[in-house]
Amino acid sequence: MPDDPRVLCVDDDRDTARMTAEYLQAAGIDCLVATNGEDALARLDEGRVDCVVSDYEMAGMDGIELLEAVRERDDRLPFIMFTGQGSESVASEAITAGVTDYLRRTDAGARQLLRRRIMNAVDQYRAERGLEDTRGRLEGLHHHAVALAGAHDRETVVDQALVAAERILDFDVSGVYVVEDGTFVPQTDRSYRPAGDLPTVDDGVLGRTYRERESVLVRNVLEDVTAEPDQPEFRSAVSVPIGRYGVFQAISEEPNAFSETDKELAELLVTHVTQAFDRLESESDLRRTNEQLRAILDNTTANIYIKGLDGRYQLINDRFRELLGLEPGEAVGRTDFELQDEEYAEEVRENDQLAVERGEPIQIEETGEFEGDERIYYSVKVPLYGDDGAPVGVCGISSDITELKERERELERQKERLDEFAHLVSHDLRSPLSVARGYLDLVRDEVDHEHLTEIANAHDRMENIIDGVLTLAREGREIGERYPVSVEAVARGAWGNVDSGAATLSVVDDTTVDADRDRLLQVFENLYRNALAHALPDDADRVLTVTVGTLATSGFYVADDGDGVPASVRDGLFDPGQSSDPNGTGFGLAIVERVVSAHGWTVELADSADGGARFEIRT
């Protein structure tokens, strides 16, 4: 799981900085304190900091100057201006300088809001860094693919692959194991060698991976019946078949050390290892015989092909042929212009010619449309030469990276929405609202009238709507790492976080789901608040009971014994702003739906056995 956020609190008033830090520490945020800009920059150079929280008016270097210095070091590190002496001009200057957020300590609930802003900013910052890391590792693996493609012996292939696993994938302990007489034999000194007898094809995760020819991700060996490790100190593993030769495996002493992304990247690396092993097993040059090349093509999940200088296919692998919807041999002699739309074909043709013109392998992103489905590929294209040294064509390896690119685009869309709402809420909405509250306080000093209370209530409702819009913009679409969690434990924890009054909670049974615990906690809290606010609108003397249980199919429900949901709001119940409560914001259930959807689940409204509302979440 990710480390707790580490925040650097900067304020020339030591007591103020200390109190802010102590509040954040109590909220689970690791804090450092600096009393001036120079000290803050030194702290940044000393180690990891996920967010800077700084005052504006400080002796020496003020907050804006510190922000500019921080941006020179890291232009995306979250920087929140948390000031007691702010103004609209200061806020405008801070936003222009690239501040992440701007808050005033004097505002009601400022520290609670600060904590939420920190967590949201750090989540966004880490997600961006994670995506960059994934892209960097992907590019690094493609660079290694060229080295693997040119290796002259199996030992070089293995060493290059394990170097890539260590330096690019950050796998500390890994190995390549080839099957000899039913036993897995470590290849080269770089491969980890298990203690005792070598494992066989009939045992453990290595055996399962080899027999089933499918990758295996073991998050915790203590919870996996297949895992029978020779070294019990190893708790998690990712294992990928190397075609018919053996298995690549990485292991860790920590549980949950590997993610699905790690598995996908390992599969990409092993694809190139498999290709290299196939090539080395062939007895003749790949350019002279299609039969020898076919041995390589049949063991890869990438699209692999050979074309002549005229752009006509001479050979493609089965995966590519099946993608095109062609029978064996039908692609030979055709060009990309005959197989897909002209705009895609033109792009591919230009890249083929670029590889030949440069006389060296190139790596490029390409798009293609097959059966109406547009996909994005990361392609390695290598020029091919005849016996006289003249170019005769190009060989290409294209790996599908559509999902990675879509994650990148979604992250960019979320960042744009976040920036838009953060600016709107922090400046265009909160500033005039603050002015209105100030004038209301002045009027109250001179006039005592019952309508002033209604004005104050309207201000509070505006504040709640602003908070709801911001929460809806920042939360729900993205979730963190998923782990098995107890529904009962999360349900009871959420109940303790809401003002339940005389209402009671009943958890009738329990189940385990793979979820982001914090976001699942948010789902329960919002469902509870919805029930407490809406279930008994006309009878304040009745005591509400909220029940949590599991569904006959996979999933769970939250039900109440209130008056149910009015028919007038059922159709748009999960739409933002929809509420039957005149004082409600209508964002609670919208956030529930988005968090549930982000998990890949569904939520539906039904009637409870007691006539109230029942929300069923199917996992």
UniProtKB/TrEMBL annotation:
<dbReference type="InterPro" id="IPR036097">
    <property type="entry name" value="HisK_dim/P_sf"/>
</dbReference>
<feature type="domain" description="PAS">
    <location>
        <begin position="289"/>
        <end position="359"/>
    </location>
</feature>
<feature type="coiled-coil region">
    <location>
        <begin position="397"/>
        <end position="424"/>
    </location>
</feature>
<feature type="modified residue" description="4-aspartylphosphate">
    <location>
        <position position="55"/>
    </location>
</feature>
<keyword id="KW-0175">Coiled coil</keyword>
<dbReference type="InterPro" id="IPR036890">
    <property type="entry name" value="HATPase_C_sf"/>
</dbReference>
<dbReference type="InterPro" id="IPR004358">
    <property type="entry name" value="Sig_transdc_His_kin-like_C"/>
</dbReference>
<dbReference type="InterPro" id="IPR001789">
    <property type="entry name" value="Sig_transdc_resp-reg_receiver"/>
</dbReference>
<keyword id="KW-0597">Phosphoprotein</keyword>
<dbReference type="Pfam" id="PF00512">
    <property type="entry name" value="HisKA"/>
</dbReference>
<dbReference type="InterPro" id="IPR035965">
    <property type="entry name" value="PAS-like_dom_sf"/>
</dbReference>
<dbReference type="GO" id="GO:0000160">
    <property type="term" value="P:phosphorelay signal transduction system"/>
</dbReference>
<keyword id="KW-0418">Kinase</keyword>
<feature type="domain" description="PAC">
    <location>
        <begin position="358"/>
        <end position="413"/>
    </location>
</feature>
<dbReference type="Pfam" id="PF08448">
    <property type="entry name" value="PAS_4"/>
</dbReference>
<dbReference type="InterPro" id="IPR029016">
    <property type="entry name" value="GAF-like_dom_sf"/>
</dbReference>
<dbReference type="InterPro" id="IPR000700">
    <property type="entry name" value="PAS-assoc_C"/>
</dbReference>
<dbReference type="InterPro" id="IPR050736">
    <property type="entry name" value="Sensor_HK_Regulatory"/>
</dbReference>
<dbReference type="InterPro" id="IPR003018">
    <property type="entry name" value="GAF"/>
</dbReference>
<dbReference type="GO" id="GO:0004673">
    <property type="term" value="F:protein histidine kinase activity"/>
</dbReference>
<dbReference type="InterPro" id="IPR005467">
    <property type="entry name" value="His_kinase_dom"/>
</dbReference>
<keyword id="KW-0808">Transferase</keyword>
<dbReference type="InterPro" id="IPR013656">
    <property type="entry name" value="PAS_4"/>
</dbReference>
<dbReference type="Pfam" id="PF02518">
    <property type="entry name" value="HATPase_c"/>
</dbReference>
<dbReference type="InterPro" id="IPR000014">
    <property type="entry name" value="PAS"/>
</dbReference>
<protein>
    <recommendedName>
        <fullName>histidine kinase</fullName>
        <ecNumber>2.7.13.3</ecNumber>
    </recommendedName>
</protein>
<feature type="domain" description="Response regulatory">
    <location>
        <begin position="6"/>
        <end position="120"/>
    </location>
</feature>
<dbReference type="InterPro" id="IPR003661">
    <property type="entry name" value="HisK_dim/P_dom"/>
</dbReference>
<dbReference type="Pfam" id="PF00072">
    <property type="entry name" value="Response_reg"/>
</dbReference>
<dbReference type="InterPro" id="IPR011006">
    <property type="entry name" value="CheY-like_superfamily"/>
</dbReference>
<dbReference type="InterPro" id="IPR003594">
    <property type="entry name" value="HATPase_dom"/>
</dbReference>
<feature type="domain" description="Histidine kinase">
    <location>
        <begin position="424"/>
        <end position="619"/>
    </location>
</feature>
<dbReference type="Pfam" id="PF13185">
    <property type="entry name" value="GAF_2"/>
</dbReference>
<keyword id="KW-0902">Two-component regulatory system</keyword>
